[in-house]
Specification:
The chain is of the alpha/beta class. About 35% of the residues lie in helices and about 15% in strands. A hairpin with a 2-residue loop joins strand 10 and strand 11.
């Protein structure tokens, strides 16, 4: 992937240097470049050919990146997220971006919190391409969480431009959010133990927790964005008015029950081609609202919250084309390396408890 990207950049720069040459010379050079990419014995294939086309999908203006969902919120004991990292290295996107919840959180002291971050960062360090973080509730919604984020990861919201495409990472945890029940830490420990010892009991425990009155109320509370973040969004959009597309990432899918401040963000984006991504619910979902795509990522190791077709560990693969993004999701258990399926990973593939 990287060698292709470098070649494409060089060729594209080279063609721009020839802007003053004749059209004939330019066409000749383009044909020479095509021959350098794809060559065959033309004498042997003067008629019918055993392929369908010579128009390859290799536009140097296109690029690919991957998105990965929640690791935590009851991270599974089989190591699904670590397996996803290995699979992303097989796929070789140009970069990876997540939608929050990379640590379990709710640490009791600084040492425990540092250990959580070191565990997560050791996993993302295995990636052979850049990894972009998004703040999730498990990352910061507890005493010391936001301070640790600031020290380790910097700003709570940010943007970057890549190949004339704007990527905005918003912070859905910027304003106060509902706090989890005080027993959340102990419940998480029990849940992790049951995943290995009694998966069916773990599922029952999780279903009871997710149906509790406090959790249902918390999930239904709209996400408010403070004025400071709204002002930053407005400024960032104004300074990047001519990009060819805008992607927005956040942890909570704010469009499910939009607050007035989220509606203001939607208004700011009117007239601009854009796509939203979020996570949090641990269940893949797709919405199209007023012609705009809103995608809620399924998990990559986090607990499964309820049954259904969106209950799948996956990564999402995005190819940015001249016409807009092509988006497809890859179930983790549908991908393996050249050596074949590894039986030691079956627990991570299917979450069937201990593999011993």
């Amino acid at each position: 992937m990287r060698s292709h990207t470098v070649c494409a950049s060089v060729l594209f720069t080279g063609s721009s240097l020839l802007a003053g040459c004749s059209r004939t010379d330019t066409i000749a050079q383009q044909e020479a470049q095509e021959e350098a990419v794809f060559a065959f014995d033309q004498a042997a294939f003067s008629g019918a050919k055993p392929w369908t086309s010579q128009e390859f999908e290799n536009n140097p203006e296109e690029f690919q990146f991957a998105i990965i969902g929640d690791r935590t919120g009851g991270a599974n004991v089989q190591g699904t997220f670590a397996m996803a990292v290995d699979q992303l290295n097989l796929l070789q996107p140009e970069f990876v971006i997540n939608v929050g919840d990379i640590i379990e959180g709710y640490a009791e002291d600084e040492a425990e919190l540092n250990a959580m971050w070191e565990e997560a960062e050791a996993m993302t360090a295995e990636l052979e391409m850049p990894f972009f973080y998004t703040r999730g509730n498990h990352d910061v919604s507890f005493p010391g969480g936001k301070e640790a984020w600031l020290e380790r990861r910097g700003p709570n919201h940010y943007y970057f431009v890549y190949r004339d495409v704007l990527f905005m990472v918003l912070d859905s945890e910027d304003s106060p959010r509902p706090q989890p029940p005080p027993e959340i830490k102990e419940l998480t420990k029990v849940y992790k133990r049951l995943q290995a010892e009694d998966p069916e009991e773990a599922r029952k425990m999780l279903a009871e927790f997710m149906s509790s009155e406090a959790i249902v109320a918390a999930l239904g509370q709209p996400v408010e964005f403070p004025e400071q973040q709204i002002a930053w969004i407005m400024k960032t959009l104004a300074e990047n008015a001519d990009v060819r597309w805008t992607f927005l990432f956040m942890h909570e899918p704010c469009w499910e029950n939009p607050s007035e401040s989220f509606k203001e963000i939607q208004t700011l984006l009117q007239g601009r081609t854009h796509t939203f991504f979020a996570g949090h619910l641990h269940y893949y979902d797709y919405d199209e609202i007023d012609g705009v795509e809103y995608i809620t990522m399924g998990p990559a190791g986090a607990s499964w919250h309820h049954d259904g077709p969106g209950n799948v560990d996956h990564v999402t693969w995005v190819t940015m084309t001249e016409a807009g993004p092509q988006i497809g999701s890859i179930a983790l258990k549908g991908l393996f390396d050249r050596k074949g399926l590894d039986p030691s990973l079956f627990g991570a593939y299917d979450r069937k408890g201990s593999t011993e």
